[in-house]
Predict the structure.
Amino acid sequence: MVSAPPRRFRFNRATVEARAGESILAALGRRGWPSLVRSVRYHRPRGPFCGVGNCTGCLVRVNGLPNVRACQRPAQDGDRVRTENAWPSARFDLLGALDLLLPHGVDTVHGLRRPSWAAPLYQRVGRALAGFGHAPDRAATVPTGPPRSRSAAITIVGSGRSGRAVAERLVRAGERPVLIDRRAATGRDGPTAVDGAELLAGTTATFLSPDGADGGRGFTLLGVDRDGAGVLVRTRTIVVATGGYDGPLLFEGSDRPGVVTADLALSDHGLPLGETVVVGGGMRARDVVARLGEDVGAVVALSEIAPELVRTAADLGVPLYPRSRVVRSVGRAHVRGVEVARRDGGGSFRLSCRTVVLAHRRLPNAQLAFQAGARRRWWDVPGAYYPEVDAAGRTTVPGVVAVGTAAVPAGRPGPPPEQAVVGILEPASAPASPLPATGPPSELLPYYRELLREPRHGKWVVCPCEDVLLHELEAAVARGYRGLELGMRYTGVGTGLCQGRYCLPDATVLLAILEGREPPEVGFVTQRPPLVPTSLAALASLRDELDPEAGR
Amino acid sequence: MTLGRGDYRAVVVGAGIMGLYTAHHLARAGAGPLLVVDRGRLSAGGSGRNGGGVRQQWETRSTIRLAREAVAAYRRFDREFGHNLWFRQGGYLFLASDPSELERLQRVRDAGRAEGLPVRLLGTDEVEALVDGIAPGACVGGCYLASDGTLYPYPAVWGLYEAVRALGVEVALGTEALGVRRGDRGEVVELQTSSGPVRTPTVVNAAGGWSGELSRRCGLDVPNVATRHEILATEPMKAFLDPMLVRVSDGLYVSQSMRGELVGGLTVPHPPGTDAGVPSSPRFVTAMAHALVGLLPRAAGLGVLRAWAGFYDDTPDGFPVIGEDPRLPGFVHANGFGGHGFMLAPSASRRVAATVLREPVDLDPREFSPGRFLGAGAAPSSERLQLG
């Protein structure tokens, strides 16, 4: 194979080389840890966190278009990449002074009213500070292509292990399902095709609607492909096999650059992690330790540590700290270490590191099922809502089936593929009995109970996209605004660009503790489409497909 | 939930902006024990789903007067209720796509000027100067009033909720109104709710999109129709769009919120009904995206962050319904605002409260009374500027 010539792009004033197919983030990572953006409200330093296109830690402006996720965008020759929401640079940002001047944040609901003559000034300043990026350049070209539209009897979203297993069995049963996967067809992590099934690689499904197409049954699925073109799939049955993502953990300084999820550590962006502390005691943490090897300085787990991880760590000589917690991250614009303490008492001690990898819990990507109206069920471990499914993966919405770790937490018995095929081909005539949500007790609930009792210093950022602070949740509850729906409206938690992926599960647990209720009693936020920000251009291109009259 | 007292001077159905404002006026007037019931939580209905637009440009004098008073009230709101609405008076700009629409906007301008509002007609060059990046040839002219604007709806609900409770008003959330019991003379004596009956001589129907259903539960045939309406918001951007834009031809409207999101909607036909189970539709999202990109091409690269739906409470003539129902003494309407309840609430609710208190009301009954649909005399005009 002949290696392709390197791409050259501009990052602010520097010229950066990238290998073919490599993400902008990966290319920038070879020059050292990339500082790309400041947080939206207080201009706190933020870094790449998830590496899978969910978070707001690597937003950049590319060719005049704002809020492009550097981890999802392959570097192209001649790209002009710029920092957003920071001046003169993300590393040194003058407005970072806001973070120091407002140590307890700012109360935009009740504050900023005195003196009254200053109200118009507050409004002008507030308006100028809002948003990550500037509006698109007028001359910017929006990458898009002709819309693609197709119909399918069965559409499987996600071609990971579960999605492919279901697809193979459906093909054997004489079906020809369409497989959709957001990963590009190329690259180490690319999806593999299934013989007899059609694969739409590089396609992100963003909006599933039970709109009664297909004679009152069936679904409309909107998405966008890697070229920015709109994708429309009309389908009778939808299989949600979208897997999961690594969840967050709240501690002092948990939003500091260098705190990342296992998704990023295991991705092929190849960021220079350096000496690493891994948080988590299960199989995901073991995967991280096995991958990072000698770089792992310690493993910290809220409760016990799984025997497999103990063995892997012993082989590498990595010290283990079970029943312990990260008290805080240490450093300024980047992690330089963590303070760790045993949860049953005793003093804290410091571990120096450059990276903290969160590998303590996998959360489900079940949002499509919720968009379609599937009933939810709270699982204490990992502390998240899953769709309620029966033994064949049927959700409460006829025609929507969930499998794999989008249906039940990893390690719990879920719908096996051969049963899911039954669920797909034979929609239930009567409501089936749901699988019980039984498992170990939550380790998050007692941990957050401890946190909420302790004195706190600095800003505790519950929602990194919108800089929502823990004490703002407390204030909402104290004023009588109970439940997640009101908490979201009162504080803004869950309204950012990650669509609540990295704050709503924990906000549910925190509100439950603050309100003296169980997490499911706090409720949930309606899953409002789309799943990821989807360009107006891509959506606009699909109008005539959905309303043939409109174009005339 | 059990309801505390046995008897109330008035029970308001709907803890949205209209119901809470009405309760506030009544409590301030010392009306007596008051109860507000709502079947959902705060901000679950239209008051939590609207786009936050507040304008004074209308076709009829009566609506303009209500709107002016409302704008003055929202300007005071932060100081009065201790909650910031971030009411930004960036103006409303109506856009005409052809000469006949421009003629219509001339009438809007004339109506506003007659009431002393400095409404201006703008030529295309003035529109282009005001709206950075508007598509060339997108309009033949516009109609603009700088003191119109947008606000955050939620803090208005919270501020009123806290204020009425401080004044002793009971607010029962999660309590659904089921119907009324009539007395010997056919008048309201009791409201039946999912938490049990409550005795009251006055029921105020401020149930927004569900008000038609409530009236019908109380045995009243009303013409209110609940119409689905959808909105979308883009990812937040630094400020670049000052006025709210409203296109007359298709009802497209869009503004930039204080958080920087473009927020807007479009008139897309939907079958009537109040089934809120489907939050948003692909048909709306794609039609709205198409319209928005057509008007503001530079927005094409912006991502849609979320979309949601709510209900307009529409009436045949476009005027709201404010007043006691002649068929059911003690039943007071505060509904039919056709998607503009939030922007008219401070002033409209004052008339509702006056009706309850049997004080004089300065509204033309031909335009606002519930009796106008009973053949008693149709409205001399109609308010058709039901956009944005």
Summary: Chain A touches chain B through 67 residues (CB under 8 Å). The CA atoms of residues 389 and 395 of chain A lie 5 Å apart.
